[in-house]
Amino acid sequence: MVRVTRGPRQELAEDRRLGPAGAELLYRAVRSVAVARGFPPPEGHSRWDDGAVQDVAHELLDSERGQRRLAAIFLASTDEESFEALLNTAVLNVHRDRGRRTDFGALVLRVTEILSDEPEFRRDKNDPTRWTLAVGRDGASSAPPRALEGAAEAVHDVQVPRWSSAVRRAPLADRTTFVRLLTAILAAADGSVTPADLARACERRLDGRATPLAVEVDVLEFLGSDPTAAPTEDDALNRIVARQVFDDLSERERLLLATFGLPVRSAAAKVGVGHSQTAVLRGRLVDHLRSEMADDPDSEDVFSVMLEMAEQWAAVRTDGRGATF
After folding, report:
1. CA–CA separation, 120 vs 284, rounded Å?
2. Has this prediction a pTM greater than 0.70?
């Protein structure tokens, strides 16, 4: 009897988790992407040994987000080959996210160093983890993050020192620029803030290439040039789940979704049934969707995406398919 070996995608479909083949594929992807792209090993490791690979692989799978990421890869793939390609992309995103966190951590350390060295700044008397101007006010700032970012953006003439080292990270600005930035941000704060708050306010001003710490979702390349494609991973995963549920709806259920924001009487005229029946059908649809997404922590966001999809579907149906809607 010939034993047929299951692929990673088949393991996931049948067991609802990665099996031996999936684990082997994931570990291989983590190592090969890291080496090919030159990503450093995680903290506590000097090279990409088995322990380092496992740490990063577990980061991809652990937590609620990890499980949703894996489900999204499964839904987006059509066979073992496409599953492997999407998993490789997800691994690349995790490596990138680690790199961004490392860069941000270095920026926080640099900000803390300057705050400690320069006489223009001091610790909050009531909370030594927070900083204010030497002549500033104690007590936590109530200024929103955007106000702090705006103060940083208003600082001109950012000076970046010349840098020739290919090993050490290049500085984002010289000390004088940092002092001017921190002074402007703390003046706008009118109170004390943490070094991390200051680093976030500085980040985009100092590096136009800087991106939020949210993971890029290259795993959504299959969405093509869709202008509604989500810019963050959570939004992207919500869109995948919404598409899966929406595609299983009947035409009437899609019409009910497309008219969800209308009063029952107005919706009834478009759905083509009486308003009492429309109310009943709408209630049944909501109960059905609630059941379908009962285990999804972002069910409300998924539902919002489905409403958007229904409106787009109805517009195409009206324009191109001769419907009465």
Report:
1. 64
2. no
Encode pLDDT of 155-180 as tens digits. 887 665 443 333 334 445 678 888 98
What mean pLDDT is predicted for residues 104-123? 86
Residue 63 tokens, joined = 């937590």
How many Cβ atoms sit within 10 Å of the Cβ of residue 241?
22
Both structure tokens of 155: 């600082």
What are the distances in angstroms from CA 171 to CA 11, 100, 148, 174, 280?
47, 15, 21, 7, 63
3-state secondary structure string across 165-214: CCCCCCCCCCHHHHHHHHHHHHHHHCCEECHHHHHHHHHHHHCCCCCCCC
Which of 154, 173, 206 is a domain's end point?
Answer: 206
Domain of 157, in residue numbers: 104-206
Distance of CA 2 to the CA centre of its chain: 44
Per-residue pLDDT at 89: 82
Q: Please report where in the chains the tokens 């009118």 appear, as a residue.
A: 190
Q: How many domains does the chain have?
A: 3
What is the C-alpha to C-alpha distance for residues 250 and 170, in angstroms, rounded to an integer? 56
**Model confidence at 325: pLDDT above 50:** no
